[in-house]
Write a structure and sequence with these properties.
With 398 residues, the protein is an alpha/beta fold. The strands form two sheets. The protein has an eight-stranded mixed β-sheet. Strand 6, helix 4 and strand 7 form a beta-alpha-beta unit.
């Protein structure tokens, strides 16, 4: 029985793909230990039913979950966010130093700071094979997220050293977005990098409530983490300008995040009555929103860094077969030009977004049927969960 140590600061009940990967490996009979934190994402508060203990341990079948005390309040404080990274780094490194000898393989699930790879490097003292699955690209993603200042150049050199060290010592590198390969190759040109994208989260197939409604208009729905990198303020303005003449659509924003209150204030001050905020819902409940939506919205700000990303939300949207409005540059529009699954708009270009809104709300029944077929085709070609999990398992275990 293979014993796998998983480094992931996010785990159930937080909604991340690592949950499904762990479940699949458990069914294969692997003995798994997950090193994680007390759940707090995305609110920065400890989830109901959990206590923020220094360390806790539970066992569920052949899955052992070890949780470390979490730093709270990081949503409102960049300092606390940095402290949170180092908190997990310290706790998990100490664990690996003491117990790393016990495991056959180490798997790093990186959805935030690349510092999570350091405990994996420590495991190399026991000659363990380490694989990292990068969901975020460093150093490119650091400064757009606000970690700037007078020490930017010094910080960049430190981060570049971290990037080179982690990726050089790691045995296998997997990326969730193919353009990440080009960035990482600058630091480790000799390394082979594997591309394994995010599949649609299975829990989004929850039971549908037949009485659930959003409005009797054309429902355009954004679902996910709400922050300044989504350009939702610009989209709200473009949508209102487009919609104010005919008033035939409603923009639904489902989720929570650091940018939510600002968007609510914009709605109030601008009188955007055709924009509705629904708050955060579970991955099982979200299927109700998808089911009654006519169009699904995905967006990212026009920063060169974000053009590298292929958000997991895209495959989840494809799973619904609904038309997608992509207000972003990069990997998602590139795929959408090959498969007709919706309409693309230029982020931060209000006139272009208005044109895209007009085009996507005017789709015929035949257009929508074609999109449904194309969505299934792109899922099979690029986001087949079984194939992706098999590929990751092969990379980790051989």
């Amino acid at each position: 029985m293979k014993k796998i140590l998983i480094l992931s600061d996010r785990y159930k009940p937080e909604d991340f793909l690592i949950n499904e990967l762990v479940d699949d490996w458990s069914k294969k009979g692997f003995q798994i230990t997950v090193l994680t934190l007390v759940p707090t994402y995305p609110f920065g508060k400890v989830f109901n039913g959990y206590k923020n203990k220094l360390i806790s341990r539970i066992v569920e079948g052949n899955i052992e979950i070890i949780r470390f005390r979490a730093v709270t309040g990081y949503r409102e404080s960049k300092v606390k966010k940095v402290i949170s990274f180092f908190n997990y780094l310290l706790c998990s490194t100490l664990y690996v130093l003491i117990m790393g000898w016990y495991y056959d393989k180490v798997f790093v699930y990186q959805v935030g700071a690349l510092t999570i790879g350091i405990p994996g490097i420590v495991a190399k003292i026991y000659d363990k094979k380490v694989t990292i699955w990068s969901q975020d690209i460093w150093p490119d993603s650091v400064f757009p997220k606000g970690f700037v200042g007078v020490f930017k150049s010094i910080l960049l050199r430190i981060i570049e050293l971290l990037v080179k060290s982690v990726y050089s010592i790691t045995d296998n590198i997997i990326v969730s977005c193919e353009p990440f390969t080009t960035v990482i190759n600058k630091y480790v040109p000799q390394k082979k990098i594997y591309y394994c994208p995010n599949w649609a989260i299975s829990e989004s197939q929850g039971v549908i409530d037949p009485e659930f409604v959003l409005s009797d208009k054309i429902n355009i729905t954004f679902a996910g983490n709400i922050n300044k990198w989504r350009s939702l303020d610009v989209i709200m303005h473009a949508f209102h300008e487009y919609n104010k003449l005919e008033n035939k659509a409603q923009l639904n924003i489902v989720g929570d995040g650091s940018g939510l209150e600002e968007l609510k204030n914009i709605k109030k001050n601008k009188g955007y009555d055709d924009v509705v905020f629904w708050g955060r819902v579970s991955s099982k409940q979200i299927n109700n929103y998808f089911n009654v939506s006519d169009i699904l919205l995905i967006s990212l700000a026009p920063n060169p860094c974000y053009s590298l990303y292929l958000p997991a939300k895209f495959s989840t949207y494809l799973n619904t077969g609904k038309p997608i409005l992509a207000v972003m540059n990069g990997a998602v529009p590139d795929l959408m030009r090959r498969y007709r699954v919706g309409v693309i708009a230029i982020p931060d270009d209000i006139e272009n977004i208005k044109i895209a809104l007009k085009n996507i709300t005017s789709l015929s029944a035949a257009d929508k049927k074609e999109i449904e077929v194309e969505s299934e085709r792109i899922l099979m070609d690029h986001f087949d969960k079984k194939k992706i999990v098999e590929e990751i398992t092969h990379i980790v275990c051989t």
